[in-house]
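note to self — DONT lose this again. spent like an hour looking for the file last time. sequence + predicted structure for the chain T wanted, 293 res
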Amino acid sequence: MAAHPAAYAWIEEHLGSKVVKESLVSSSGWSSAYVVDTQDGKRYFVKTALGRDEAMFKGEALGLQAMYDTNTMRIPKVFHYGPLAGAGRGGSFIVMEHLDMARGRLAMRELGRRLALMHLAVPKEEHAAAGQFGFPVDNTIGGTPQANGWMSDWVVFLRDRRLMPQLKMAGDSRLMRMGEKLCSNLSSHFEGIEVKPSILHGDLWSGNIGAVGEEPTIFDPACYYGHHEAEFGMSWCAGFSPDFYAAYHELIPCAPGFEQRAEIYRLYHYLNHLNLFGDSYYSQCASILQRLT
């Protein structure tokens, strides 16, 4: 078995059946994902991360649960997350429901409608219900730490928890000068609109979207409670169609200044890609900052 035996030991002890088969689904610099079959005919989705403590998957588990609680979207059920006991350099794992998306048919209009309903759902989390932005734990966006400490002001949260950390991580003086100029005037992009905390998937691109039958599903999140428009920060690689946006905006109308704010939200993800994958994303970051400043 390629995945760590501690994850399979947990499945056998707590879910009642021996793991008999595994298939590697994906692997990145920070985690690997497997589909595993058990002797009793059940199937689970397992992710492991060597060298990372359980905080990584705790954020994912709590995020999936927060989206699940809205009763709007097909979200995989989480069974457990925890440390990989016996891993030489430490590690963690998560076990969740396996969703069969092989024969799913994704309808963009239904995805847009369901996503809007998720954003409109009243938060169960007490801080978010009281109007604060953040999440109960910090998590990761790809392999990058994402701070989620609660704040009552969205613009301050966006500046201090999202844009400035990525700009500092990039370590580029030109980007930082433009970024500081943008951040000094950030509130002007939110004049005249009301921002309420919505549960966000946080990393919504085509690789994290699917369908079970005809029901849309989203997974592998970087959740937090934020401005619903921030969900479209990864739209440049999500493949959202005109039908998707039409259905979404039937329930949440497009507010004035949407396009400029969309640039700001895309900037966060382009900066993250710059920090994760290198200079091929530099020009996109610089171009957005030039347009906004």
